[in-house]
Each structure stands twice: as C-alpha cells, then as structure tokens.
Amino acid sequence: MQRPTGCATMSAGEQHYVVQVSAENRMPSVSQFFGIVIYMYFNDHLPPHFHAEYGEFEAVYTIDTLDILRGQLPRRAHSMVIEWVLAHRAELRANWLRAREQVPLEQIEPLE
To answer: Is residue 76 part of a domain?
Structure first.
C-alpha cells in the first residue's frame, strides 16, 4: 500500500489504516485544530498522556488531570487544548488504551 509522505500504514486484522505521523518523532496524530496537533506514542510510559504541538512549542498533558508533564504552549493554544480535552477525554482515554496495545488509533473531532 502506497502512503503519502508523513504517514504510516498500520494493520489490524485485515484492515489497513493510514495515520499522519510526526516526521521527527514518528507518533500518530489523533486531531488537529487551529494549528495545534495532538499526538500519542504507541506503548508509551505512564501516566496516560498526550502531546500537543503548536509551531515550535510542545507540551505533554496528562489525560486525567490535565497537568503538564513537560513543555509549554502559548496561553491561547493551551486554553484551546484544555477546551478540546474536556469535550473529548473519553476518546483520548480509549486511544491511550489502543496505543498501549499498539493497535490503530481513532481520529478525534477537532475543536470548532
């Protein structure tokens, strides 16, 4: 299966998925909005978390408490990430479990 640059092909049973990945870190993107990209690594360390990138900024947030484990985003981008998580926390948790099991992640609706 041929895939676009910046994407990875993943398989689950007989189904194949193409997901966008960060060129630097090789982690799948699960959502994008207003220049913010949300990523998760496969089989990553605890606590359950996700990565948010905005331009040259990156922050790692815990899913359950929204604590920032490292990094930072500009105030407006941070506020949008928090708003998005509050609307999609259950989907993030489900994707965290998928990532730990190394199965394809689901795309999550962007902030509108």
So the answer is: yes
Residue 10 domain flag: no
Whether 5 is in a domain gets the answer: no
Q: Give me the pLDDT at residue 43, please.
A: 82
* Structural domain contains residue 82: yes
Answer yes or no: is pLDDT of 11 > 80.
no
14 pLDDT above the threshold of 80: no
In sign, the C-alpha dihedral spanning 30, 87, 112, 33 is negative
Number of domains in the chain: 1
Q: Are 90 and 106 in contact (CB under 8 A)?
A: no
- Tell me the residue ranges of DSSP E strands in the chain: 7-12, 15-20, 29-33, 36-39, 49-54, 57-62, 68-72
| Share of residues in the chain with pLDDT > 90 (%) | 71
